[in-house]
From TrEMBL:
It comes from the Bacteria. This is Uncharacterized protein.
């Protein structure tokens, strides 16, 4: 088994205290104790929806990357891997005000490979796709901005993914930027999947991709163990919804090899 490099071990240790408390006491108890204003991150009244990638380096990016009045809508590559029909169905019912792409997007690399394009020019593919979508929305009378996010605006390091968790979000939004800097820093860094805005099939496909990235060469890989697993965190509006999301997530986890299943734990929270 290949040993993780020093940089990965260092980043892993940065999140160790938070993760140990969650492993020992559970996510619900941790949120209620350490992130007491979590409702601010879940509130969407009067806010605008902004499309972004699932990348944890965006959701937990540099201070000011997004603001408290923006609600992230997250899927790999900002919908670049979705069909046009899937996108249009979602966009019809969603008041989108912003659309983003970002530097070094892995989903854009997958997109390029699927179409026989230059896999090293991911930024160009992301920009071209994002600008095209925004133009289409504007032609329909929608007031939507486009923005390409640079690596310097994202959470560092840029070279690999540092997600310890995957947020499977069944609330209208989950925006850590709406929290104080202190409480935002207490949340474990993770990928974000906007389950509330997608059907089960799309969200589960996104989840499978995030787990694969976390376990792969560009994630923490074999640092995840049965004792220190990748945490899948369903975010729900109430206890019943949380149980439903846990079942949905477990259906995805069961598609992985048995040894990898042991390196995953499902433990979410609901707003109280």
């Amino acid at each position: 088994m290949r040993e993780p490099n020093h940089a990965k071990k260092t980043e892993w240790l940065h999140g160790e205290a938070i993760m140990k408390e969650i492993y020992n006491g559970g996510m619900q108890a941790y949120i209620e104790k350490q992130v007491s204003h979590i409702e601010d991150a879940l509130s969407f009244d009067g806010k605008k929806f902004v499309v972004m990638c699932v990348d944890e380096r965006l959701l937990f990016g540099q201070e000011g990357l997004f603001n408290e009045n923006e609600c992230p809508v997250q899927t790999p590559g900002s919908f670049i891997l979705c069909s046009k029909e899937e996108r249009e169905k979602i966009f019809t019912n969603l008041p989108i005000s912003g659309f983003t792409s970002h530097e070094g997007c892995g989903a854009c690399k997958v997109y390029a490979k699927q179409r026989g394009l230059d896999e090293e020019d991911t930024d160009a593919h992301g920009k071209e796709f994002g600008q095209k979508i925004v133009e289409e929305l504007r032609e329909k009378g929608r007031d939507v901005y486009y923005r390409h996010i640079t690596g310097d605006e994202m959470h560092h390091p840029k070279e690999f993914h540092i997600a310890r968790v995957v947020y499977y979000i069944n609330t209208k939004t989950f925006n850590p930027f709406a929290l104080s800097e202190d409480e935002r820093g207490r949340l474990p860094i993770g990928f974000g999947i906007s389950r509330a805005h997608f059907n089960e099939g799309i969200a589960q496909k996104d989840l499978k991709l995030c787990i694969s990235i976390a376990f792969g060469a560009h994630g923490f890989g074999n640092l995840f163990t049965e004792e220190e697993p990748l945490l899948i965190v369903p975010v729900a509006v109430d206890e019943d919804s949380l149980e439903n999301m846990k079942t949905e997530v477990n259906d995805v986890v069961k598609t992985f090899a048995v040894e990898d299943q042991k390196r995953v734990k499902i433990d979410g929270f609901y707003s109280v």
